[in-house]
User: What shape does this take?
Amino acid sequence: MTDINTNALSDSLLSVLRRRPARFHSLEALAKVMKVEKADLLFAIDLLRQTGYEIKPDSQGRYAFISAPDNLLAIEITNDLKTVRIGKTVYAYKSVQSTNTVAARLAGVNAPEGTVVIAETQTKGRGRLGRSWFSLEEKGIYLSIIIYPDIDPAKTPGISIMTALSLADTIQSYDSLDVGIKWPNDCLINGRKVAGILTELSAEVGKVHHVIVGIGINANHRRQDFPPDIAKIATSLRAEMKEPVRRVEFVQRFLKSFESDYRLFQKSGLKPLRKRILKYSVLLGKKVKIDLKGSIVTGTAVDIDENGNLVLDTTEGLRPFNAGEVSILRRM
Ligand code: BTN
Assistant: This one.
């Protein structure tokens, strides 16, 4: 596990400089305001620069904040984040095995609700159904959110589709892209997968202990960055928007959207979100097959119900499914 967090002094120096971007401050004035030695400030400035911040000196040895890197640093994600709880605590890493694993460990020691674990890459990123998740360094967004929903465990499948909705809205807020949700956990643009969600929970009968919502987003990948098998079905925000996306800003917009959907979900389940989910759904009205670990059911997708189940109109009538791998059939 490799850490990329700055230290407490560099964080507070950054917030002082950032209050007035491009304005030069003398080391004497900064040392006085922050009640530290000038040498410590120089060390902090070096640390910030190594982390990618542009901090410029003028001819009189005064310093100004010019720009921040688009690195997934805790201090960048929390800076001016417009949420109440989600993302208020962030653990950021350069590399981890899986952000979901780190988050589960933190949930085990009661990390606050809304804690985010985020990484520039994962060495064992996990996808659904035992697959791995391609976690290209510094191009994607790999993050996990810890929540403690006070709901019946039977309702937890709704969390994946709720998250897909928050993601779809975030993507839509950038551009008039053709964004879709493929039940139960994929976000698509123009029919190709741009993001996936892996929700893992710890629960007992009638009680959820914690839920880890893991989200992988293909952000700034170029088409040629994907291995051939993934390239056929995947896309990225950059490929669709035709320009790189600032990942920190994307994460902040997403956390805000997640917080507001999660608040509704906790109060009333998927009921207040269903209409918006259905609007994005790429399966509705389509003939599909669902693979239930070996047995295959075919039918027309007609609904996503209030428990997050996909409802198929089959030869045996309407049937709800709470899991499975779905593909659209051209003909039945
Ligand atoms: C899927 O579509 O199969 C789900 C992919 C989920 C990937 C994310 S990346 C962050 C988090 N950590 C993981 O190991 N997996 C999820």
Notes: Residues 74-280 form a domain with the BirA Bifunctional Protein; domain 2 fold (CATH 3.30.930.10).
